[in-house]
Batch of 3 targets.
Target 1
Amino acid sequence: MEMNTEKIDYTRHYKKWHSDTPEHIQAMKHYSQGLLIPFLPTNKEISILEVGCGMGFAMLALQDLGYINHEGIDIDYGQVQSCLQKGLNVTQVKDSTAYLNSHKNQYDLIIALDVIEHIPQEGQLDFVKGMCKALKPDGQIICTVPNANSGLASRWRYIDWTHYLSFTEHSLDFLLYNAGFQSIEVVPTEFFHPPNFRLFFSRSIFRSWFWKSILQWTIFRFIRGFRRLEMIGELGWEQGISVPLSLNLLARGSKQP
């Protein structure tokens, strides 16, 4: 089950945050590479499918990294057209689960960035099982979802009308395991990173954005520290110290042979 693409123009929402300007494309490629590089196989000839590829930023990142065999699917017409204009191998589908079920044992890696939360809960297990079926034996999945532990979990959950739920590290592990994945690893992923203090002695010190980034980082660390204390206070030291607090969670798992 997925949203009716004949009635919903998802591009309306997506373009509030993304565009096809060269500057934004470059920024998103850089972000996608930072997100994916620690988890990507070293073999650049593997077959990769990105489910819910959006405007193709992650595929462009893979292309720049030297991966030569990648394709994408999405249900939104506007985003697929954006991908095609970039020369990417992308197909518009009406039902991603059906597509995955019809491509069994075909891919070495499936990427689903901020996708699973868009699937109604009653269809999520079948959807993730479909990704598992589409993988070759020992193939891998890399996925990201909104983190229900985050201090902004409610905004992150409801910022998109097509979101159905958020996840904790435990519920995401549960879903992947029951879909047929093993060796599951769930880690936090951050959108905000420390300012580049190597610029401190350069001319950038005089630019307002540099000081704003330092101030934002200071506030971020203070709020995140308070949130960690809250978790320890509510859950006890053993649980509270390890709860991921990032806006998103990333999971990697392998298909059972």
Target 2
Amino acid sequence: MKSLTINASQRESVGKKATKALRNAGQVPCVIYGGDTVTHFTAPEIAFNELVYTPNVHTVVIALDNGTKINAILQDIQFHPVTDKILHIDFIEIFDDKPITMEIPFHATGNSRGVKNGGVLRYNLRRIKVKGLASKLPDFIEGDITHLKIGNKLYVTDVASEDYTILHPDNTVICMVKTSRNVIADDEDEEEETEAAEGEETAAPAEDSSAE
């Protein structure tokens, strides 16, 4: 899995006034849990763009101004309800020998047979929750949908790997091919046209008998 480095400054004061002053200066208050100690730090809001505003997932190296480097993953993030500015970020420290839990993006590969025949691919999961060592977790999880016909489903068991444990029930559906509404609408129109034509054919003999 790819890693990003964020240059940060360790915080000494964590009171409300200090936090407000940091935000006014364009800094984001952050905290790292999971290690022997809790670490408070700040970094410019722009430093988190590649971490937050992306569909991809990354591990993070927090490079503090005192020379300390901490490996972590994003745990939680708070946004301002009106401006959407980042208010606070929580990180969890990670270690080489301890598994972590993350939601990994799912990428479909191949061309579904059902989609070729007019079906539509519908997603139930865009991300799959897994647990494993950070060094073995992929940037994304791939699943081949070539064999899916209309009505077929791809389950989480279809993308299982020895590198991680999937934290969903085995019957959890990732995606499925469903019948297109347009196809249904076209079929209904054809049925209505057929019924109308049959009605006209039935009415025609009645007109002929009355003329006699």
Target 3
Amino acid sequence: MTGQRAAREPYTTRFETEVTSIDGREVWLETSYFYGESGGQPADRGTIGGIEVANVRYDDGEHVHVLAEEPSFRVGNRVLCSIDWSFRMYCMRAHTASHVLYGAGRRLLEDLGYGGFDISEEKVRVDLETSTELDDETLLELDTLVNRVVWESRPVTWDDIPVADAREREDIAFNEATEEGAFRRGRLRIVTIGSEDDNGTTNGLVRRDGGSSDPWDVAACGGTHVRNTREVGPVTVLGRSNPGKGLTRVELAVGPRAIDRRETEKRVALSSRRALGVSLEDVGDELERLEGERDELAAEVRSLRRELVETDLERAEPFERDGLKWVATTVAAVDVNEAGEIASGAADDLADIIVIAGDAGSPYAVVATSGSHSAEAVIDDLTDEFGGGGGGSATLAKAGGFDATPAEVVASLTE
């Protein structure tokens, strides 16, 4: 068999062996069931001869055990080794959950490739190479499929095959750059999550994979796994992000942290139900209805605000400057972009040059012209006088960050 002994016998957590070499805090053993950090899975924790293991490296096929302190035992001594079962089992569950997730991805995503994964105490990340955009609905489907496969108690097995054979099989997911630990002496270690039929039952559930008896997932892997998906326990898909071009990162929690996340989500759902006064099943529809109302109200507010600004422009006293007709006014609760749209629409009808000054976080000015004068030139004059910066075109220009109030900006134009 290829890879680490811990991956072949993941349920072994206590063993006795001989110490073959010591260098300070680094210890080599004749036989080791400790998992050395590899492929995104952290090293096992535990003790050797009663001394805490701080880290385990897997270098060139050998385990280097780094102790928290220099050992009192010597080369040739036999030592009792104990692996932290709680952390080992967590990693087994988390690693298997990542394979279940990838199997779900194969059924939902286009041109799926494997980009790597990582286990931390808080969550598990799986990087997927896919052109499919993972929206919220897809994340929910992934979450459902993962937990369904856990519930279905599918068997998990591991074996090794010649690398040449693996390259000819399209059903095996592997990335040589991220799964170096799965290769050894021309052979490849593969982990298989079986079909429901492998257990002789469908557990009364509707098949989500079209009724096929094909394995759920087959992947090259050098890590530790549980023997059956039911041992994974609760899983919650947390979210997704984009760590790099062509990659989508999906994060999930396993065990107690998955339970905590589901509790949070349920509290939010129940709180929403109470606040909206509808059943839990109707929360989504009610939120959609309220969102539609909000958008309608926002559009109405924008329309009324626009009408108010247009009325202010019409009531503003025109003035002549440089032989051109100008209209300038101040506005409230209108941002610079909206002011620009209003000014552009009024430039041909009201005057040769329209100036709107407002304050949306900081003072700004918008200048629109009918083409008889450069709007950008007016903005340059204003920034020369009041600071800030901006720019635009001959017919529409904007600036902000003035060291003056909107009223002072308008007043400067009529002097």
